[in-house]
TrEMBL record:
Keyword Cytoplasm belongs to the record: yes
Keyword Metal-binding in record: no
Catalytic reaction(s) noted: D-glyceraldehyde 3-phosphate + NADP(+) + H2O = (2R)-3-phosphoglycerate + NADPH + 2 H(+)
Molecular function (Gene Ontology), one example: glyceraldehyde-3-phosphate dehydrogenase (NADP+) (non-phosphorylating) activity
Family from the record: Belongs to the aldehyde dehydrogenase family.
Name of the protein: NADP-dependent glyceraldehyde-3-phosphate dehydrogenase
Residues of the Aldehyde dehydrogenase domain: 22-481
Pfam families in the cross-refs: Aldedh
Higher taxonomy: Eukaryota, Viridiplantae, Streptophyta, Embryophyta, Tracheophyta
Organism: Citrus clementina
Amino acid sequence: MAVFEEIVDENGVYKFFYDGVWRKSSSGKSVTIINPTTRKPHFRVQACTQEEVNKVVETAKLAQKSWAKTPLWKRAELLHKAAAILKEQKAPIAECLVKEIAKPAKDAVTEVVRSGDLVSYCAEEGVRILGEGKLLVSDSFPGNERTKYCLTSKIPLGVVLAIPPFNYPVNLAVSKIAPALIAGNSIVLKPPTQGAVAALHMVHCFHLAGFPKGLISCVTGKGSEIGDFLTMHPSINCISFTGGDTGISISKKAGMIPLQMELGGKDACIILEDADLDLAAANIVKGGFSYSGQRCTAVKVALVMESVADTLVEKVKAKVAKLTVGAPEDDCDITPVVTESSANFIEGLVMDAKQKAATFCQEYKREGNLIWPLLLDNVLPDMRIAWEEPFGPVLPVIRINSVEEGIHHCNASNFGLQGCVFTRDINKAILISDAMETGTVQINSAPSRGPDHFPFQGLKDSGIGSQGITNSINMMTKIKSTVINLPTPSYTVG
């Protein structure tokens, strides 16, 4: 941990970062981070003021001007350095993820390594995308002579505000930071409270790589005090947000700037009669219960044809029974959900389903923030769990009598992030995929955001814009055109 000593003050409070320096807030206040497993205070971070946020943004604005003129190969070189340092420091960063968000230890290490890979890939992809321009000639449009040449290239937007969620505070931060930097933008990161310390460690890795002062900043504090001030700041030129309903509020308040938002989902899994039920069951358990279901791409509802429902439910029950439940330090499959309020919300959905006579495949059990995995069969459309996103280890099964019924339920949701279909008939799979109103449909696999260079987007309340490394680079740039006007030739050729 010695490499991270300078990011903590004498009282053990983590500092915020701007203009190349780790600083204490003038507010003299801090925000406490509760360990989800112990439910006791574990870390503290600075509670930045609006005045400090203003300095951060204005510094980022100045730093971006010179960064935009930095050669593309140099930007890529620094990103590769940051990626290497990030991987070298995977153990202490992963330890923060275990303590802050109760991520199983092995998954925490995987997140950090994956983040390093993302940064490196982004450096290479950025060189490819941004190293090419385009030439248009005027006579390709009716009525024009060949007297104009239009040269187009991609230029940066300016200052990008990145707001990642608690469940992947490192990976979903670098998925915003790396494309912004390679494209010539500066970055202001506002990490989630749960996950802020892991994000600060990650930012320090970028600092150690040697990026120019002011280019990367990280502010911590209460969203109620600095959230709106940040998102409505006139010098912010782009917002990339991943999270929940807050994104809708941001989109209404932000100025006329590009927005990239992923706001959650109710990812439906449709299982047909001809599906490989062992494959489907394995993916339902993996998709529904990995990281205790706290993923936007988790399977949130299984829509199963009645004729195979009994068999499938038994197969899923058998796999759920093998899941280990306990502390993230012990690499358990099911670990505590991130906050007590989250656990209370999940319990509310479970009690509603119980009152309305859903079939409990396991006994409901909860200790503090730890909720044992629960499969709910015979869920009906009047139950909240049929529509609301639990973000926990609770999975509803809705029995359907036709493919059309399954598609209808999927499309009736306000969400449209991802979905999946299990069938051996590729023609049916493609037709169902076309009919599902979701950004991505997985065939014979659980929903997933990765690989990180794949397009990732949602429809309806699941967000706007498209993510994935290539799409993010393109979104964080704008087209600049230079038109060369030639004189009308006074001679004839030939």
